[in-house]
Specification:
Blueprint lengths: L5 E6 L3 H13 L3 E7 L9 H5 L4 E2 L3 H4 L6 E4 L6 H10 L3 E5 L6 H14 L3 E4 L6 H11 L6 E9 L6 H7 L2 H4 L2 H11 L3 E9 L4 H5 L5 E8 L4 E7 L7 E8 L2 E5 L8 E4 L2 E4 L6 H22 L7 H20 L3 E2 L5
Parallel strand pairs: 1-2, 1-4, 2-3, 4-5, 5-6, 7-10
Antiparallel strand pairs: 7-11, 8-9, 8-15, 9-10, 11-12, 13-14
Length: 339
């Protein structure tokens, strides 16, 4: 049955839980928050929960047993995503899940089968698809403005490394950071990737290396069409949050550059300068986080498939897994090898 008002439960009170909760309260008046759940009971005292007067679930079972809850937003650590996806699906709740959908390919496929058999909607939170700049680039490809797309270049660099506590549970750079870029390559080119060659190093923080991860990486992705994607990542760009894309085709190219804080240009005897680019993803992509939730609930209201499916989430994880194998074994890896 189609609805115009939905009740949601938010799982996870970390950064993404706060972002999505605040966007719902401030920008989605037809969405009601039934409450927030976090495995840490002390999370009930967090400022954003108290500020918005939200309820707090003591146990996740309270969500599955609450007939008023139509959907859940899974914003908990990656290692818990599949567990909550399966529980939500079996309880008949629609699901919005932050990326990545999981880490184990077999377990992801099992969860997607449960979602399918339960008849609920699952959307994965690849918010960059909803950025107006990247949507314009995807439209240019789709509508043939630049002819046949041949090369896409994606640069994605954070302004500073994450905490070591985050690195311990993130799944690694290819999963927690590059995952957006794997999805963006598929989104922009409108095709599937058949092989990956990736390499990485520790050039930013040796402590990241001690935890078994890398902080600097580059990858070449080959599409089934023969087109190529080139992705580079770094955990530290001292000048800000570096997000650039170029799609090159047979009839031209489209470029998305960093968005400056303003367009002022200050000229003095010492030279010409501009204010810096946004410092982090919250500044750069905040509108896209709001728009992706609007798209999720619009799909539920209309009874349509989610604009970013569980299969999209699986595809990105398979690319991440191939990149990790490629980096470790120093060779190209086909996605057929990833099981």
């Amino acid at each position: 049955m189609k609805k115009s008002t939905f009740v949601v439960a938010v799982i996870g009170s970390g950064r993404m839980g706060e972002i999505h909760t605040t966007n719902i309260v401030e920008h989605l008046p037809n969405i009601l928050i039934g409450g927030v759940y976090d495995a840490d009971p002390h999370a009930a005292d967090k400022e954003f929960i108290r500020k918005h007067g939200l309820g707090f679930y003591a146990f996740d079972n309270e969500i599955w047993n609450d007939a008023e809850v139509d959907a859940v937003l899974i914003c908990s650590p990656t290692t818990t995503h599949l567990e909550y996806i399966k529980k939500a699906a079996l309880a008949g709740k629609h699901i919005f899940c932050e990326k990545p959908v999981g880490e184990d390919i077999t377990e992801i496929k099992e969860a997607l089968e449960i979602v399918k058999s339960s008849g609920v909607t699952l959307m994965i939170g690849f918010n960059r698809r909803f950025d107006n700049n990247f949507q314009r680039a995807a439209a240019a490809v789709r509508e043939g403005e630049i002819g046949n797309p041949q090369i896409v270049k994606i640069t994605s660099r954070d302004p500073h490394p994450p905490s070591m506590e985050f690195v311990k549970t993130s799944g690694g750079l290819f999963f927690d950071m590059s995952i957006h870029d794997w999805d963006m390559a598929r989104f922009l080119m409108g095709g599937e990737i058949e092989s990956v060659y990736a390499t990485g190093s520790n050039l930013v923080d040796p402590e990241i290396g001690k935890l078994g991860d890398i902080d600097t990486a580059a990858a070449v992705l080959r599409f089934t069409s023969g087109s190529i994607a080139v992705v580079d990542n770094s955990r530290q760009a001292v000048y800000g949050y570096d997000q650039r894309i170029e799609v090159f085709g047979s009839k031209g190219a489209i470029v998305i550059d960093n968005q400056p804080a303003n367009t002022a240009s200050i000229s003095t005897a010492e030279g010409i300068r501009h204010d810096p680019i946004p410092h982090f993803f919250i500044n750069r992509y905040m509108q896209s986080y709001c728009d992706e939730l609007k798209a999720f609930f619009a799909a539920l209201e209309k009874g349509e498939p989610a604009p970013v499916s569980g299969e999209d989430g699986l595809a990105a994880v398979k690319i991440a897994r191939a990149a990790l194998i490629s980096h470790r074994e120093n060779r190209p890896v086909t996605l057929d090898e990833v099981v």
